[in-house]
Amino acid sequence: MSDTTIDTALLKQVTQLPESRNKQQDSFAELQNNARAKYKAEGLPDRTLHLWRYTDPSQFLYSDGSESHQNGSAIPANAPIASGVSPAYDTALEQLNAGELSAVALDNADVSLRIELTPVAIKAGLVALPLSLAGADYSDILKRHLATEVGADFGKFEALNTTLWEDGIFIYAPDNVRIEEPIHLLRRGSASSRWTFPRTLIVVGENSKLTVVDEYYSANETVAGKSNAVVEVFGHANSEVEYFVLQRNNAKTLSHYTERTILVGDTSKSMLVAASFGSKTHKANLGTIMQGRQTKSLQYGLVFGSDKQSFDHHTEHINRGANGYSDLDFKVVLKDKAHSTYTGLIRVDENIKNCEAYQSNRNLLLNRGTKAESIPELEILCDEVVCTHGATVGPIDEMQVFYLLSRGIPRTDAVRMIVRGHVEPTLKILPESLQPRVRSYVDERLATL
Amino acid sequence: MSNYILQIKDVHVEVEGKEVVKGVTLDIGKGEVHALMGKNGSGKSSLSNAIMGHPSYSITSGDVLLDGVSVLEMDPNERSLAGLFLAFQYPQAVPGVTVANFLRSALMARRNDDKAMRTFRKELYAAMDALEVDHEFGGRYLNDGFSGGEKKRLEILQLSMLKPTMALLDETDSGLDIDALKIVSEGINNYCSAENGILLVTHYQRILDYVKPTKVHVMIDGKIVKTGGPEIALELEKSGYESFQPELAEVSG
Ligand SMILES: Nc1ncnc2c1ncn2[C@@H]1O[C@H](COP(=O)(O)OP(=O)(O)O)[C@@H](O)[C@H]1O
Ligand SMILES: [Mg+2]
Fold this sequence. Notes:
The complex is a heterodimer of chains A (about 450) and B (about 250). With about 450 residues, chain A is an alpha/beta fold. In chain A, about 20% of the residues lie in helices and about 40% in strands. The site of adenosine-5'-diphosphate has 12 residues of chain B, from helix 1.
């Protein structure tokens, strides 16, 4: 691995791309050519289906007119990022140095992709590399996972990402590698309003454990960014993976995001938490495919919309193995004129017995002018299943407000407490390295009630 | 300054367009414990809730004075800060809000001073110990999944921490086993002082063995039909509310 430098002083592994970050390996050429053909051949998604009823797909068409940045000429490589430029990165590095994180990646769209691991994580066997460098040692792993679930055939915009991803991040825990401290990926958008295509592959081997935080944010407050991201997570037998995605783009960004976790092996477990605060329009599609037997999947959602933001989230729990357990808790809070749509699919294939699948979506509307839709989609093709789903859309409970008022708490504080309480179960499960920051995003929105 | 801590003056209460309290007058002096007794549905909770400012119960006529000042124009939180407290018959669950955070906010609303909050933990634990409530309770979500007895204890815990001047205790005794009843009664007695007033709403006389009332009022169909000393409670116990019915006929006839 000639591209990996070992900083002996710190005994920390730092990987940077040597030239342009966009130089793809030839091994991806076939995959990408195939995806390009699919993207071009496929029409716009059918707007009569739930998935696209609420958001206009045409805005996600690739519109930059050229693919020149793909060729690597336009973007300087390895420009270092100064401290203060990205406070989230500074914080992450501090946490890394304190051993609270096991790796930090800065995927700085216009500049570089830089990944650092702690000596402890390296010793334990954690692999974190740019996708373009991973092929040298992990070509077999890539071949068996990359774009096998979310690739050319998944959908038009996923094919687009597969065609144009700008390098990407590969996180791999070989068998029996258990890493407790989170790996934090920072996806800083472009400072120009061009499309960016973040890509992530997470593979967790047998009996292994990983926790990944994947954070998307804008380069500044004014750029009208455009992002199309794809994430694939694979859990092999008896593995555990926790994946947290935080989207806090500026309010001008257009974002499209697709994630799939595939619980390949028996008794594998996953937890997926999606927290969406940013973007003008955010379209997210998250799902867990429970392929092995006796797998367990927990999904949590937290959306807090304000101003004229529009959110469109879709989740899936697909049961393809017997004795699976899945639960989903998707919380939405809207103020000002924000809109949210949530569609949640539970599918249990034929003859997949003894599954339990639960789903709950609760929407709090803080004022008139907000709008939330909640559509459960159940495709249960097997009788021997326990499945419940529930959805509520409505204003804050005045009885709760009255209870707090009756103890002297002013109305605005009471409302803030109740909203925080609404999202608390989700905040509580965030890794400690992330929790205070996400709480502050909730509080920021509650400050102007 | 009034000698009365609470004055209820010919109060009528409507809920869902129906009059359920039909002219109640009741004065509670400082240091007094009044028991308000009546069958289910007689309007006791409607009266209590209306006094606290519950949005579903409107006082259509009459007045309520706390320490000589009408509370009717006040928001519920202002009533609370003025010294009024209602221990609810059915305390509301607020998921995601911990007991400790809730109590801290309620005290902050009174003290408005971070320094004064430094002793909060100590105060909380002392109040919990007095009511034999596990400290672990502080981290639980407000009334969320609490048993009936736990809810009632939490109401009295709030009473002991917020130290109001006038406490309306709505069926605080119901759902308590005898041991819990003793503990909760002790909490109420600890709260009693020459400066405070209590309106103890109940339909059993059981709690009156532990919390001694100055006066007992009997409420039937939205009206107080009889007022007297503790002996009335015993009479009720013996012959039931029916024996008071004729007096109602007399009053209204
Ligand atoms: N929220 C409410 N909505 C509709 N009716 C109510 C409500 N609360 C009380 N009532 C009615 O008012 C009357 C008095 O009830 P309540 O005040 O609860 O009596 P008590 O506390 O003495 O048992 C009953 O007829 C009851 O059904
Ligand atoms: Mg009652």
